[in-house]
Amino acid sequence: MSNSRSDTSVSEAPDGPDGPDASATVQQAPEPKAGKGGSEKAPGADRSTDPLRPSDHIDGDSRGDGVDSPKLNVVGWLRWGWRQLTSMRTALVLLLILAIAAIPGSIFPQRMADPNGVTQWKADHPDLFPILDGMQLFDVYLSAWFSAIYLLLFLSLVGCVIPRIKHHLKALRSRPPRTPVRLGRLDDHREAVRTVAGSDAKAAAEHSIAIAEKQLRALRYRVERYDDKRGFSVSAERGYARETGNLLFHLALLGVLVSVGVGGSFAYTGQRVVVQGTSFVNTLLDYSSMNRGRFVSDDALAPYRMTLDSFDVTYQPFEQGSPSSGMAGDFSANVTVSEPGQKEHKDEVRVNHPLGIAGDRVYLLGNGYAPTITVKNAKGDVVFHDSVPFLPQNNSTMMSIGIVKVADGLPEQLGLQGFFYPTSAKLTTGALTSVYPDLINPTLTLNVFAGDLGIDDGTPRSVYVLDTGSMKQLTGGKTGTKSIELAPGETTALPNGMGTITFDNEAPKGAKDYTQSVKRYVSLQIHHDPSEQWVLVFAALALLGLVLALFVPRRRMWVKATVVDGAVHLEYAGLARGEDPTLAAAVEDLRDGHARLLDADGATAAIAEPDRAPETGSDTETGPDAEADPEAATPDISEPDDSGRTDKRGDR
């Protein structure tokens, strides 16, 4: 007996670990011989044919009865890559990566929105700037890597949505599925028994299903009658708006991507500093900086003029030691707008309240003081007169820095580095500072440089930067000569008898204080984007689709009537795709509503009988009904997954 057991081969042993000879086979397997290096397998044995390993082991012999995956050629790899790209998982990952890739756009200043910020960043970080600029971190939304993510996301969504649309259209045209033979196998199942008023129980059963059909139609189900020799039934389904909403969301997201991508080619964004009393004309030459799309021509800008009449700002009262002292409460740039063929009208630009003009949106980015400075030569001729914008260095005190360049009319080119203090006060060191942002005690100090401004060779120079490499400092610093210090209306001599300089007082005659002595300026951004409305429309559609996809239940309902012992037996069942906590209540409502309709009809009468618990029979249960119609025994819920494949669920 032992000899016969030891001769039993592995192929003759019963399949699975529970066979009667499995243990014997393992015990009689040849043991590996020990060698110098440890264990050694028997001659001729390898890992794939080792009898100690089951046939489905990872190191099993796939050259036997197993299935070998074919090697992919170029087309196969391309098809595999396309399927990976067009899966919903990839789309979600790309969407997350796109959001992460946009973060540098909010950390670093962008040339499109803040070119002056980029210039300042370059001046503050001269060594790091070339590296970050090479990584396109100052042009994030126009960079090659951001565009690549953008295009991959677009392709992923297109490849994901198109197959699902085809499947969804096919599902919309299909009939509701046949009624399962054993509705009792479904979790949400109810029963009812009704006596027949007349003698024709079969007709009463058919009539009850006709009433159920009308009831389900009134509940906005798609219905289909399935009557056979076993009884009468109606199958109903609804909730296709869930998948419709899902597709609408993805299509709207595609619409947003297309609108942003195409609209950017027709959009432009420009910046302009406008001093009080001056005008801005919407032409390319009048912009301080401009970024425009590739399809924006020179004559694409709408003609209009905007004049800054005044700038209103309120500050918190001064309180010694109070952190809120001097904080601005509200800004308002009061302007006069002139458009061709229209009457001039007054308007205002406020923070977070842009002004719309001829399809453009005008935003208020910043504000400051623009001291009016007049320079005369030794003969008394005016060689410079302008209101110069000074850049605030501290918003709570409005201490500002500005540059004045006098290129002609003097023996040498003159550069003035100015510091403006709206409410000046002296520190213990003797240096000036500003303690309040409003014009209480305005003071202007100037350091004078003489020499070459570096503008004669035609090289563009920033009006906010003074290159002193070829200039000699005449006042301030280590020169030993005190900086020029002026109050509004005061005049003083320039060094070396070159002339005079005056800090003009812009206050009206009879003014008793300095509150209007210095002009204000505003920094405006003019933005034009024809895709804004389309983006808004698609965003609203995406929100609508998301609501449908989240809150519309996808379910199927069945009502079945059979005649048993002269009575009508009614069954009600429901099946949902995914989780639907309201399904049980929906089946209850269907049964109760049907009972009320049948009571009103009078053809049948209810029998007081408690609901029977759902059947718990095995799925392998067989019977004549199942053999008669095997396809009807399993309700089919088919929906496409993210890759367009079909997920089928049987009865539970």
Describe the structure concisely.
The chain is α+β, with helices and mostly antiparallel strands and 652 residues long. Helix content is 27%, strand content 28%. The N terminus and C terminus are likely disordered.
Descriptive report:
The protein has 652 residues and is of the alpha+beta class. 27% of the residues lie in helices and 28% in strands. It contains 13 helices and 31 strands. The strands form eight sheets. The protein has a six-stranded antiparallel β-sheet with strand order 4-5-27-28-3-29, covered by helices on one side. Strand 4 (222-225) and strand 5 (232-238) form a beta hairpin. Helix 4 (88-101) packs antiparallel against helix 8 and helix 9 crosses helix 12. The protein starts with a helix and ends with a strand. The model is unreliable at 1-45 and 612-652 (pLDDT under 50).
SSE layout and pairings?
Blueprint (H helix, E strand, L loop, with lengths): L1 H5 L15 H6 L5 E3 L2 E3 L33 H12 L2 H14 L1 H5 L7 H10 L4 H6 L9 H30 L14 E9 L4 H18 L3 E4 L6 E7 L1 H24 L4 E8 L3 E3 L7 E4 L12 E11 L12 E11 L6 E5 L5 E3 L2 E11 L1 E6 L4 E6 L3 E2 L7 E7 L6 E9 L2 E3 L5 E3 L8 E9 L19 E3 L10 E3 L4 E3 L5 E5 L15 E10 L3 H20 L3 E10 L2 E10 L6 H19 L2 E3 L17 H5 L8 E4 L5 E4 L3
Antiparallel strand pairs: 1-2, 3-28, 3-29, 4-5, 5-27, 6-8, 6-26, 7-9, 9-10, 10-11, 12-13, 13-26, 14-15, 14-25, 16-17, 17-18, 18-21, 19-20, 21-22, 21-23, 24-25, 27-28, 30-31
